Amino acid sequence: TATAKRSRPLQILPSDSLHKQNSYSSPTYQRSIQFSASSKRTMFKKAVEAKSHQRLSGADRKKLKRTLRDKFPRASDADMDVLFPPKVEIAVAKFQNRVLVYSVEGDFPMFFDIDGRGTELYPTVFALWRVPELLPSFLLKGGEVSRYMLGGADLMFPGISVPAEGLPSFRVGEVWSVKVPGNPAPIAVGSTTMSSAEAMKAGLRGKALRITHYYRDSLWESVDGHFVPNAGFLDDIVVEDPAASVVPQDSDSTEGLDNHPAIDEKDGNRTDNVGELAEGNATLDPNPSSSTEASNSQVEQLNVDVSNLIVSDNGGDGSAAEEQQHTLSAEEVDNLLDKCLLQALHTTVKDKDLPMPGSTLWSNHVLPCRPSGITLDIKKSTHKKLSKWLLAKSSEKLITVKEDKHKKETVLVSVNRNHPEYTSFRPEKKQEQKTEQHPGEPASSGGGQSQKTLEVVEIYKSSSHVNPIFSAVGADTGKLYSASEASDVVFQYVEKENLVKPTDKSTVVLDPALCDALFKGAIKKGSTYPTVIHKKDLGSTFVGRMQPHHMVIRGGESVVRKGALKTVQIVTERRSGNKKVTKLSGVESFLIDADTLASELQKKFACSTSVGELPGKKGLEVLIQGGKIDDVARLLVEHYAIPKRYIEVLDKTRK
């Protein structure tokens, strides 16, 4: 039988109080999300930034609710009001691959749209925990099956329990949830891969549900204040809820299949436990009594550690937190806003990211900095509106903002990092949550990552100029460093040698070793070497003396190369007569196959393409018939995620 494992206490909220989440915890996207290569498979894996965050207009809110009612006919108007209360702002986060995530502003994500067109909408587990009967559900044979589903596997028919009256009717492509026996809260959501008639013909074998989202995936992890609905939800498995004395049977649930491997591991990565299942050594027993004994064993183990759980009910800590939130005065909310802004300016808002829309500042930076369990509502402050609050901070000279008349939004332009409020504030260091890997569990592989997801990292290696500084602080001269890590090395040296000027804390006095590291060979002959340097210039000057490298990561493939990353060149020129041709080169630097890209361009733009050697240089060149310079650049940015700063265009046909 399976033993319930625990690595840390989880925050638990009872199902009858989920509608009070606004007062208990107000989540935002504190991390980002990554999607697998196919939008039809498990969507949320690792981190990638949302392209934008915005509020829906009144017309779009109504359209969304109409679409949801048509898509999920089991939901009543009252259910919809629970998920999207009337007269509240609905926010949408746009990600790559056109995926949209909808949530009530300052609340949990409720639905996500795979194709961005409203045809493939799915509820999140947060929505299903509030309205468990929103979807029909498959019932697993036992809690042990959930262990593999929480690893990102699809649901197979042999892992499902079929009721005595037989398999319920369903069509291919229907959205269903997944539940564990004895636990009313769904653990995953996905779409059926075949109809019930086809399943019966196949002997109830094969894949039943293609999972798109599940408890503990990165969508769940990305929410600040994420929680579990009951004590049966553990770190790596979901078991029967020990508080549930009666297990309700869903009319659409399924019970009793043959004992076969229940899990289809994606990308061909099968765990050792799945292999044991195939050999008949697992706990998935076709005998219902053995499944019950396994669940009872798990519950007994759970009860041993139940004292470690933080349980909130109507009379407990949840309502206390609610009372405390309601007692905050407008002035206290103002102070909390200011504290969160300063925390964000110190920790996450970088000058390179400016200018930044006010909505992005609020959702991506300010909200994640609020204390845990506290709802931060701008409407309860004296400012009432985000724009008025930002203008007030601008009048205090802490930040500079301007009005974007086109988008009708306040934009953060700059931060005054010499302002007394900024310099006197001491930011809090947040403890990062690390996911433990249990012995015997395989490390996650990048095989399921999207091939269109790109990450470019600029890294640096120690050079002969700065080697003495690295050696002085005991840093590895053969290691690759990010710019911030390299800056930390030189500041460690400054601290070790006590080089900060006593009369001016923002100035560093250069000793011979540091002066040589920063300026030897860079100062013209006969010129005087500097004796001091400002702290804000020290890090960048030190990094500039190191050997530049870059790392490019696309999906599960990565490469590290010496030197700066070369740009993609797109040139349009005239050939004989009035014909135009577009030449594209440099895509190999971004792990894009030139032949595959040429074939895609040929189909997308209905034109002839060819691939040849780049004249006089190493690399390949894609020739495209016609003046496609704008179309190609847009494709590389939107479809292949190449940052605009790495694309150079030249139109030689313009006079």
UniProtKB/TrEMBL annotation:
Top-rank taxon, per record: Eukaryota
Biased composition (Polar residues): 284-299
SUI1 domain span: 568-640
GO molecular function: translation initiation factor activity
One biological process term in Gene Ontology: formation of translation preinitiation complex
Keyword terms of this UniProt record: Cytoplasm
Taxonomic lineage from the root: Eukaryota, Viridiplantae, Streptophyta, Embryophyta, Tracheophyta
Name of the protein described by the UniProt record: SUI1 domain-containing protein
Basic and acidic residues: compositionally biased ranges: 257-270, 426-439
Keyword check for Translocase: no
Disordered as annotated region, ranges: 245-299, 413-451
InterPro entries associated with the record: EIF2D (IPR039757), eIF2D_N (IPR048247), eIF2D_SUI1 (IPR039759), Pre-PUA (IPR041366), PUA-like_sf (IPR015947), PUA_eIF2d-like (IPR048248), SUI1 (IPR001950), SUI1_dom_sf (IPR036877)
